[in-house]
Amino acid sequence: MFIQTIITGLSIGSVYALMAVGYSLVFSVLNFSNFAHGAIITLGAYIAWALMVHYLQVPFFPALLLSMGGAGILAFLNERIAYSTLRRRRAPSLYLMISAMGVAISLQNLLYATIGAKLYALPPVFAMDVVHIGELTISKMDIFAFVFSALTIAVLHLILIRTKVGVAIRAAAHDMEMVSVLGVNLDVLVGVLFFIAGSLGGMAGVFMGVKYMVYPSMGWITNKAYIGAVIGGLGSLPGAIVGGLLLGLLEALVSVSSLGGTSLSTYRDVFSFGILVILLIFKPTGFFGRHVEDKL
Amino acid sequence: MAYLEAILINVAIYAIATLGLAIFTGYTGLFSLGHAAFMAVGAYTASILTYFYKVPFFAALALGVILSVLVSLLIGYPTLRARLRSDYFAIATLGFGEAVKVILENFDLTQGARGLPGIPKFSTLGNTYLLLVLAIILCRNFLKTTYGRKIIAIGQDPVAAEMIGIPLLPNQLLSLGISAGLAGLSGGLLAHYTTFIQPSIFSMDLSSLVTAGVVCGGMGSLTGPVTAVALFVIIPELFRGFALWRLVFYGMLLVIIINWRPKGLFGYEELNRKNLPKLFSIAGITGGLSLFMPTYRWVIESRGYEIFALLVAGAVAGAVTVLFGLLGKGLSLALAPVAERYHSLRGRLSERVESTSGELWSEGQRGASCAVRHTPDGLIDGTTALYETARLTPESSKENEAANYTAGTNVKTPILELEELRKNFGGVVAVDGLSFKLSEGELLGLIGPNGSGKTTVFNLISSVYPVDGGTILFRGMDITPWGPTEVVEAGVARTFQNIRLFGSMTVLENVQAALHREGSYSLLEGFLQWPNTVPKVERRLRDESRRLLAVVGLEREADRRASTLPYGLQRKLEIARALALRPKLLLLDEPAAGLNPREATELVELIKRIHQDEGLSIILIEHHMDVVMSLCPRILVLNFGRLIASGTPEQIQKDPRVLQAYLGEKAYAVVR
Prior knowledge:
The complex is a heterodimer.
Chain A: H1 2-30, H2 37-54, H3 60-88, H4 93-114, E1 130-133, E2 136-139, H5 140-162, H6 164-174, H7 176-181, H8 186-211, H9 221-232, H10 237-256, E3 258-259, E4 262-263, H11 268-282
Helix pairs in contact in A: 1-5, 1-6, 1-8, 1-9, 1-10, 2-3, 2-4, 2-8, 3-4, 3-8, 5-6, 5-8, 9-10, 9-11, 10-11
Chain B: H1 2-27, H2 35-52, H3 57-80, H4 87-106, H5 125-143, H6 146-156, H7 158-163, H8 168-194, H9 204-217, H10 223-238, H11 246-260, H12 276-302, H13 306-356, H14 358-374, H15 382-392, H16 395-407, E1 414-425, E2 428-439, E3 443-447, H17 454-461, E4 469-474, E5 477-478, H18 484-490, E6 492-494, H19 507-514, H20 523-528, H21 534-552, H22 567-579, E7 585-589, H23 597-613, E8 617-621, H24 625-631, E9 634-639, E10 642-647, H25 649-654, H26 656-663, H27 665-671
Parallel strand pairs in B: 3-8, 3-9, 6-7, 7-8
Antiparallel strand pairs in B: 1-2, 1-4, 4-5, 9-10
């Protein structure tokens, strides 16, 4: 039972990690929390729904790739429309957060106004299939989500370490101005950054859609991924992964435990935010976070 | 009529909540994603009290306000503690909203998701508007006090605010408390107007409405957000068919305004005569648009020609728009004489008040004339002037002083002692075992190539960074572990290499903000602008600020927005602001950077003057060698965080280690 819970937690946690990586990537370079990430993830799930259910019967893998691409392009456009002016003007991060909130509100309600509040299911690719190992029953989707998330993050890591763009991104996280002086086109760099973050988000959205449902406010879950990113240390890639996994595990454990007869699963979200508050009291930079200092 | 009343009451209720967020986001620069949760706390507290316990309405409202304030402080304390990162607070408010929802849904007293029906209808047009006006007046009063200026300073530049001794956390919490209190009040009123509340009312949508009001109304204005939220409540009533698109529109508006018109509706200003035409045009356009569809349909029904209908509808919409626009212009013009009379009346009134306190005022005047006398008026070529000032300094006395220091036989007690100070950034050693002493009243130059650790030394003294090793003694006290504001309070003030002023404040307010420790009235007195204390203290602070501006020669610019000052004057304003902290030790970080030769000469005079008149000890970091050489009897040279030389300007100029550090070894060999 305990191991079963751990496995559920790891599978949810890996999806959290995918989303948290998106937050951290953007934060590391632009130094603000992109609250529109949730809306992009939701739209990623809707793209998959449109491709697999509503308009066509595209198989799972092509649909997943197309959703990733679509969400990536949306994230790119999001940056161009809502952030690039502020970025060039070096506006305070408060402005960027407000702009992000505007995008999030707009997109979520656009879904309500056009597609509606109905819940849609993505086809059960192998959601129903289970694997039996001894006494454990594990859904194939959980395994798939975990493995695929891990692989994607590994690829991302390679991109960041090995490719020119990756090196530029890591350098920009250190000092954006210096990177631009060295001849890197910041617009392109930030564009690539948002495309990567968006496509990871799109993937996470599809996984969430298969596991639960597709609905306009599903972006709410990403707030917990954000908490994962904060736990690990905003702006840090390993931090986002560890934080996401940890939060998934803790949530799975809380969901199955009970206190004085009442199940704690109702209070799961409250618990996650409680963790955030406690963490901020004792370790405001998270596990891997760096302390950002203004240059005086 | 009831319909109109409903809209008007809704306007007042949401305006109160918006006012709260205007203080928190608009002025303090912090972000909240879940202000509706504070409204929920106020609403549920007040309703439960009036519904179950028959508590009088206003008492229940007050208790609701108190509880929202307490709750806000509870989540504000841990999350705002993470310095300079308001993102955490934003996400915590979101979580707090969720927590409130879960608790309300699972709590017997709140009757779960079904909500509380049958709350007595106590909110009326009268009491909501009374409370709104009261709230606006109190907020306005508050912003005009030292407490308000502290909050605005933090909103403008938290680092600079801390460096003039304003602690961030307590002031941010104060702002949050006011903000949550107003949200709680608004929630209580809402509950007693709709007579039915359930957890889902206090959703993200409500928070979005309030946020959109603040951003579109202008961050740094009170009446702007109130007006904006009024428009947001009224406009959807005119376009009923688009209810679902309302929030899409708000979101887009947030993005558009923050990107392309961050000043908001009234451009950082309050609703005044000049803004009236703008307001009327907005009303005219929306009114005209809302009439378009009904007119079109009406004409189609009675006549049937589509083009004709379009034309008529267009004409009606246009006419309404133009009419409103003209009305606004006319009203603005008509009010002009009234406004003028009001201003002259106020001017005369304050004149009379000022003449009764003639003592202080004339002192300020004297300071001003003093400064004018000091300002060099000739347009002499800057560089030669510099050399001249260098020559004019009595060399002998300078040499004697320096000889005293170098021999270690200084009679004066040291005001500042650094012992084996160390600071690493990752693998880079920025300050490497630095030790030196500064005597009381000394003017010490600190020079060195770029990246030699000069500014880091300042940052360590003023506690921007924690020290990695060594101690800092200030007037015999070990200030090494102290926080930035404590160091300021002990008597260390500084300026910044990259100017950090409070840009949207006036020049005078920048200095007033730094005088925050001398505003000796309570917060309550400030809220009420208590006539016995507040005006008197404020007048004293204004006069003192004028005096300080006169010292640096900025008295004529007092009412200008600080960000509009030319570069050289901004540097002077930073010095005036630092002087307002009554420092014993002044740290000047490249004050002459970016100044033209003439401005640099003026600056040399200014530094000399404040050094003598105020009896200050000063450390000066500077790359303009002329400035350093003419001002400082003793100079320290840093390289790679180590002290490589110290002595008189002459000794420094001849020192081989200094020449090597500046020129590099090969070039030095050639020169030699």
